[in-house]
UniProtKB/TrEMBL annotation:
Listed SUPFAM superfamilies: Cobalamin (vitamin B12)-binding domain (SSF52242), Methionine synthase domain (SSF47644)
GO CC annotation: cytosol
Keyword Glycoprotein: no
Gene3D superfamilies tied to this protein: Cobalamin-binding domain, Methionine synthase domain
Molecular-function GO term, any one: cobalamin binding
Annotated InterPro entries: Cbl-bd_cap (IPR003759), Cobalamin-bd (IPR006158), Cobalamin-bd_sf (IPR036724), Met_Synthase/Corrinoid (IPR050554), Meth_synthase_dom (IPR036594)
Official protein name in the record: Cobalamin-binding protein
GO biological process, one term: homocysteine metabolic process
CDD domains for this protein: corrinoid_protein_B12-BD
Domain of life assignment: Bacteria
Keywords: Cobalt, Metal-binding
Amino acid sequence: MTEQEILQGLYDRTLVGDAPAVLDLTDQGLAAGLAPETMLFEALIPALEEVGARFERGDFFVPEMLIAGRAMAGAMEVLRPLLAQTGAASLGRFLMGTVKGDVHDIGKNLVNIMLEGAGFEVIDLGVQVAPERFVAAIREHRPDIVGFSAFLTTTMPMFKANINALEKAGLRDQVIVMVGGAPVTQEYADAVGADGYAADASTAVRRAKELLAGRRAVAGTPS
């Protein structure tokens, strides 16, 4: 296969969530001398962006997003260490976790995959993340954005508890706060003082980019 055929195949097979084919094509690309960032930025990310666009149009649904995301994740397992070696620039650092009292992570994991596919460095704290763990992780990793995920209405109040903890620790102004999850609304996000909200993984990526670009514009740094 030519390099262009490999890139087209990566795009096409990621789009339909054919994980074994995506992994095989990734290996073929590396064997053919394709740069990891070429495969990422010319095939994998465009495919995931198209998945997101189809989801927003109503042509794709959550299952299609999940299988495409998993296909991309398989390729990223191979490419991630190689990208790190080449010093490929990250869009920004995103710290993610499901709040204390909640063990749901499918939606969070899909957002993580989409963020990583878009070029973010993602640090996932997992589920049942207490406010003090978020505070410690922000101090350790210095993320640009922190994401709080909740699937249960009973755990949504942890958004405010987490933001209060950041304020008490003097970290609130240093990080963008995004919230999301099945029962969450824009109104609730506004009420707890979050900077951003997204109803789905595709929107989360776009919103994260917008918020980060806005923050950097205010700070006078390149986006």
